[in-house]
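Need the bound structure for zinc ion, inputs here:
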Amino acid sequence: VRSKGGVVEAGRGYPLIEDRIQGEILRYVRVVDRSVARSELTEALGVSRSKISLAVGRLLEAGLLVEDGLAESEGGRRSSLLRIPRAAGLIAAVDLGATSIDVALSTLGSELVAHRGEPADVKEGPKAVLGRVKDLLSELLEEQGASRHDVRAIGVGVPGPVEQASGLLRSPPIMPGWDRFPIRDAFAGEYAAPVFVDNDVNVMALGEHWGGVGKGVDNLLFIKIGTGVGGGIIADRSLYRGTQGCAGDIGHICVDPDGPVCSCGNRGCLEAMAAAPAIALKAERCARDGVSPRLSGVLEERGELSAKDVGEAASVGDYHALEIIRESGRLVGQALATLVSILNPSLIVIGGGVANIGHSLLAEIRSTVYRRSLPLATRNLPIVLSELDQIAGVTGASVLAAEGVLQTTRVG
Ligand SMILES: [Zn+2]
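Answer from helper R.:
Posting the output first, comments after.
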């Protein structure tokens, strides 16, 4: 077993492609998402006609492309169009959140064909959680009349920092028991497909850029606000990971040196002060102090409060609930303004479980970013909610896996 391009190759059924040109052809056909003529490939990829013809021939033989209709003629012989058939295989996508599992199947041509999500607790540890992931995957495959042999690549997003070279989680603050757990190996016994692992927010950024509101945008920031807070950076149309893979991880930026202790051990991290648990904690304090009858009522009824309860209280005009949400928005906005100064994006997408807590969160993030950044940086900087929402993660995980498997070759 050797490691190459971030993938551990076990030598069964992959690499899928033989060389870089084959990979570029399939990636191009995926991106344009329609049938493509050989001449278009020659032009788009800047590769000679004979090389394209040779590579297309090999991909047709391997069943990764099929001929589909005829191209418009420009004099001469009409050539057939090419597309990626469903039989080329499936991509398995896994999005682990702190409190949820989402699993999906998409075609190699990037069409999402099946998706299932359920609540889960990542603290139960890798064995239990990944066991459930594999059960869900098997169910989806069976429903599609497919088997695990049809899976050509697996993409996994996890809610913690992932070391890019090894694909291992490194000291994930909210994932006890997962430190350095070999997630790739967990699939190796059953799937003859490479496994690509990345941080959940990086994966969601990929998803938004591929099929969400960020489609076609060169430079964007994706911010997830849920149990934690994180950021993913798309720079020059690709995911910017930094040296070890944790670029954009804004959750542990210090926003108050005297703030509460964070799950990472430091004090006053953005995450410890603005994410869902912090919102719930502040609300419980208000409820106990008796300043918000509504929050007190919900706490009495249920014994605990969630960020969602705070959002509902705010929506009916509860002043304290609204202030708690505004404070989160302000803190996130401050950290974001710093990122905006460094990266000068043209779009910011906000997602995660807390994103939909109510309009006041987004409004406060917007006004803080606009107030605290240079006018030139925010002159044309929309800050919007994720459109993909629940499927941003699995969409991105399938992009991660497909891009990964199409860049992994035996030689070169
Ligand atoms: Zn922290």
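Comments: The longest strand covers residues 100-107. Residues 1-12 have pLDDT under 50 and may be disordered.
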